[in-house]
């Protein structure tokens, strides 16, 4: 059985269940199911579920049985703010209808601290199966765990401030029942600006990037939203082509808030994010220079 054995100590670790969570492996999700699934309805349904089953299905990684994660923090869906979080019991068998199943189809960003998997999340409802593309970030170290918690906090602040335009839906934090490893499950924002330029230019490592005036206007609205959030202003601090996404509908998203700064001082300047997207508009953003500065 594949496991995320990542060797860091958490303040609490859930003991293994007395018996395996009852679950039958689901078939691969089809594009037809995804097309029939309404994202808003899916986000609402997934916010109610407390068990996340994780399977790997790419390259040489093929899970014989899913790893079971239990919810540790609420979804950022508006419905979640209206109910208190009651930690689910772990020595219990959960029926298929009470589980989210995430199948990882690729590893898209493993670092020393966090592993990032792209795949799809599936839930069962009385009306049938629902499925949507999703991302799972799994902490590999204590530092990675703190980054995931910080990122979740930033998303929660934005949700509480009703800042949703250009912001991914975060389905919650989950912890592996047997290993204590934590993961953050969220919506898949689609193709990054970096990937788009790879395809457009036909090169593997583009360093120069440019967005159109119309695209700049869309990003400007998103940046203004996070920079002026009601509960607390958020400065992203890491705007770059890898952290800007465009989905199949042409909607833009700003992603990866693990380096963000939560600004509580009303006098503190917060213009760096806007300056960064201006360099993308003007064609002066240089990835080599950005990496050196970082």
Automatic annotation (TrEMBL):
<dbReference type="GO" id="GO:0004672">
    <property type="term" value="F:protein kinase activity"/>
</dbReference>
<feature type="domain" description="Protein kinase">
    <location>
        <begin position="102"/>
        <end position="294"/>
    </location>
</feature>
<dbReference type="GO" id="GO:0005524">
    <property type="term" value="F:ATP binding"/>
</dbReference>
<protein>
    <recommendedName>
        <fullName>Protein kinase domain-containing protein</fullName>
    </recommendedName>
</protein>
<dbReference type="InterPro" id="IPR000719">
    <property type="entry name" value="Prot_kinase_dom"/>
</dbReference>
<dbReference type="InterPro" id="IPR008271">
    <property type="entry name" value="Ser/Thr_kinase_AS"/>
</dbReference>
<dbReference type="InterPro" id="IPR011009">
    <property type="entry name" value="Kinase-like_dom_sf"/>
</dbReference>
